[in-house]
Amino acid sequence: MSRAIGEGVQAKLIFPTQAEADAWMAEMSAKLEKRIPDEFMRRKVLTAVQYEATRAGLDPQLVLGLIHIESGFNRYAISPVGARGLMQVMPFWQRVIGTSDQNLLDVNTNLRYGCTILRHYLDIENGDLFRALGRYNGSLGRAEYPNLVYGAWKNNYVWNGAGNSIAQR
Asked: Taking the model in full, what pTM does it have?
């Protein structure tokens, strides 16, 4: 996990063709226009989500659903218990897999941590997304949070383009 966090690579869309990347960006950008009005920031967030999710073997639309529930796409969100950024990453993860100088409110850093952590939980739970989401939220064994994320994912961020089969359930 630490190695995944430490690899500072510039985010870019990863699709088999540029046409597919353009189609995904256009569709997801339209879905997020009200939540992230600034087009530059919206494209930056979407590019980072798609890159980090794909890099971690996650469906980018699942990650969008998780962000929808966790922070409502507020990159500066800080929860009452101290979770930070889009994916609401707890600062203790910096000690566990990163370094204290990494800014969890930075879009790319936050997404790298969040996707790496969710992938870790999926691995622990042998691919069981429901249980992995429960672990991510600290609510393992309770259905509310996994159902909220799954609902946000399926109701708001479904994309039927090619190459959309990573970590779906």
From this structure: 0.89
Q: Distance between CA atoms of 27 and 120, rounded to whole angstroms?
A: 29
Output phi, psi for 84, to 5 deg.
-130, 145
Tell the residue number behind the tokens 């790496």, with chain if given.
116
Average pLDDT on 4-12 reads 67
| 127, burial (CB in 10 Å: exposed 0-12, middle 13-18, buried 19+) | exposed
Catalytic residue among 33, 39, 70, 125: 70
Residue 130 has pLDDT above 50, yes or no: yes
- Is the pLDDT at 4 greater than 70? The verdict is no
Active site residue 125: no
Which residue is associated with the tokens 């966090």? 5
Q: What is the pLDDT of residue 167?
A: 41
Place of tokens 């609401």: 88
CA–CA gap between residue 59 and residue 79 (Å, rounded)? 25
- Contact 46/61 with Cβ under 8 angstroms? no
Helix axes 18-32, 39-55, angle to 10 degrees: 120
